[in-house]
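Archive entry. Fields below.
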Amino acid sequence: MVADIATVIATQQVNIISMREYVDTVDNRFFVRIEIAGCDDPLPIEQQLKIILPEDAEINVNPSPNIKIVVLVTKEYHCLGDILIRNHFKTLGASVECVIGNHQTLQDVCTRFDVPFHFISHEEKTKEQFEAALIEVIANYQADYLVLAKFMRILSPAFVEKFTYSIVNIHHSFLPAFVGANPYRQAYERGVKLIGATAHFVTNDLDEGPIIAQQIIPVNHSFSAPDMVRAGKEIETAVLAKALQSVFEERVLIYKNKTIIFE
Amino acid sequence: MVADIATVIATQQVNIISMREYVDTVDNRFFVRIEIAGCDDPLPIEQQLKIILPEDAEINVNPSPNIKIVVLVTKEYHCLGDILIRNHFKTLGASVECVIGNHQTLQDVCTRFDVPFHFISHEEKTKEQFEAALIEVIANYQADYLVLAKFMRILSPAFVEKFTYSIVNIHHSFLPAFVGANPYRQAYERGVKLIGATAHFVTNDLDEGPIIAQQIIPVNHSFSAPDMVRAGKEIETAVLAKALQSVFEERVLIYKNKTIIFE
Amino acid sequence: MVADIATVIATQQVNIISMREYVDTVDNRFFVRIEIAGCDDPLPIEQQLKIILPEDAEINVNPSPNIKIVVLVTKEYHCLGDILIRNHFKTLGASVECVIGNHQTLQDVCTRFDVPFHFISHEEKTKEQFEAALIEVIANYQADYLVLAKFMRILSPAFVEKFTYSIVNIHHSFLPAFVGANPYRQAYERGVKLIGATAHFVTNDLDEGPIIAQQIIPVNHSFSAPDMVRAGKEIETAVLAKALQSVFEERVLIYKNKTIIFE
Amino acid sequence: MVADIATVIATQQVNIISMREYVDTVDNRFFVRIEIAGCDDPLPIEQQLKIILPEDAEINVNPSPNIKIVVLVTKEYHCLGDILIRNHFKTLGASVECVIGNHQTLQDVCTRFDVPFHFISHEEKTKEQFEAALIEVIANYQADYLVLAKFMRILSPAFVEKFTYSIVNIHHSFLPAFVGANPYRQAYERGVKLIGATAHFVTNDLDEGPIIAQQIIPVNHSFSAPDMVRAGKEIETAVLAKALQSVFEERVLIYKNKTIIFE
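PREDICTED_STRUCTURE:
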């Protein structure tokens, strides 16, 4: 199959920049990511691949991406700040179309970067109403991804379904440890020696979507729960940044609730 | 209180090598570890401390330690091998009095290092009988600690109670993620990007005792469950070695199911 | 001595938050950092300490700090961006009084955060003239520290002397490997498997001042020199942030061209 | 070219287990490692590849490896101990044919594992005589690799030439920092916050051969030079083990004094 695919691409007079394969030997499935340069029109490649590959093969031919995102936040600034700085200097790999906050705390920093901010309070709204308001705003921007940058509301299955594998969340623990609320409090109580952060796609199982990136830092007995929160913010920022880079460079495939990441 | 303690020690004409404190501000408890040199008889220090400290203070004055351990194993060699090498070259910080295995797999390597090996099968025995047999052997050695170096049997509350905070276990996951059996299989299914190992004291709650040391290594989608097992063995060995060093150098205090480690 | 110091503090009716000692056994010197709360006037403590301590003891009693900094930059935004975000949200531990750039590239981002930016070109100026211009601007702000956040000019001994141990630099390599220019190019040529960053105080020996913090990330053969630069920026930002935190919380002592950091 | 190679392999009715490529875009060179299963006779594949590939292509077809090594040591046990344990339990990926020591310190531990030990003192011998004696012993074993497991003698160019890219050394620093003798002393004097270890192929430039693996651990001001030595031993052991695994699994290509490692 590698031979066939490579032959198709070779006949199109383009250069292969990189090619990475992975074989899931359990399910006997083959994954490949090929990065090519000098291709004005990817359509012929896609058509040829459809002919030579099995019918159930999933083919994605993506022209040079111009990814648009909407960021959802609550009050914490650290992940958003990092995203805004990268966005401003055009190294994020995507364009922040707008930020939506269920508090107004982060409006000012968005305004400073000329990024539209929409305040949608969750108060005095049912979850349905709140999410309808979110969807109404999001609809105005043709976003490829929603990024939950410390957005502290749990989204409903109905909402998540609208954005399958398009919502990236940063969870403030080394999943699957400390699922749910107050993970640093849980970590403190348990006396762990490492704390972590996990970036993952959001699915309908809370904190159970495909993991994109994880990282840890050492802590010790002298860390209070607030100390852990502070230390954790540093890796939350770093892990989300790394995950977004992988996603926006289209290095991430999803299969059976896991990610295959071609770095 | 620091002033009082330091004064007591100063009057005894000994040298303070190191002094580390920790204040648990939640419970308002004070912990201090003082390492002294040039002290032939610690008794006067202990007596003086009892006088000046509150009645409920816990005082441990340990003369230069000569720690004895018994190691329990099943079939996996990596942790035991590391312990035997360090023991042989006298850098373990403790002396391995004997090894007990519920399989005979590791008898040969012990014999090569002149370390007594006792084979106690768990087969055709109730847990009670099995543990009685263990205790009978252990009783012959005045062990300060039992080290579970990949010992794959769960010990009963009755057994654990006999050795409170004297049993060190290596768990093949980053606790509290993946408690219980087959953590690498669980990690593989979940698609984590890091796997870990945890050394902890054994209490009656499975995998819930005070954590001494933890470490992780990165993995990716290409790791099968057996690959994770193999990678995990490297950090299991490293984490257990580090934890034992802290314990044998008497740097570890236990308080409220957590460890305070004065490194 | 610990006893004496602790007694002095105890008599002043203040609370000791934390106390950390270090004994340099080579030089037989004793270092201690004590953090206290509830002290309105530190003068009596300082006076008492002077009485009880040896004449050559160095005593620093710092009231709650209100640290002011000036940041020097060239064109790269990553370290400055991180500092500006933390400064804006008041978690930097210091206040950015102004930013000075020898290029105008980063003026805009400073303006967005209402931080004064001074453009001082090094072109058509001797080093002496350039540094005189820097000093003139700096003099307007009573800065406790200068932070070189990817400032790509080497400062003269005369300049450095004016700010002894008050200039923090981020060097884009794991010192002492790859001293000087183009460390990533050097790292690429050498085929290293890790790249690093070092935050250090600036002295008159290029890249030889006391090291405050260091960190590394793994790289492999597929990293081009530009890839290493990109990856390196992430840890440059993180290492500088960590070093500044230690410095601004006054946890860093300097002795014999090394730092003692009481974390 | 990928297409051509894949086609060759496909026609031989074997299974591709993994395939990893790397393109050096600077020199425009292509590297590929293909792991296949179910191939009784690799000769036809090799012949076919020679036909389709450019004349200057380097082709290595290795049947299931049965690698033999000779280990050279001085007095330190930690790397050798780890190698002997893995060798004994057949997880090293190679077979230790013998150990050569220029001191007798480690004879006993080899004997315990039934591994031949040859004592060849360097004393009262010229370097030429010493190396002639080494070569005489090594000649009796058809070793694929020499492993310098803390062998503290510098080998002559004449010796190294006999074993081009077949000598693996563990250097006790994070190269290229602290080249040469006493790296931990140098690290201590410099006040670094991380110490490292480097496994590399030996070439005629001291400590300048292609790097296979590197790792670091954090240290702080409280580490004396001996403390750094002790901490360093842990990573020396780990780094050498990791490098040997890569080498013995034939994942390491060498190009322009750098390694390409297909993990």
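CURATOR_NOTE: The longest helix of chain D spans residues 225-248.
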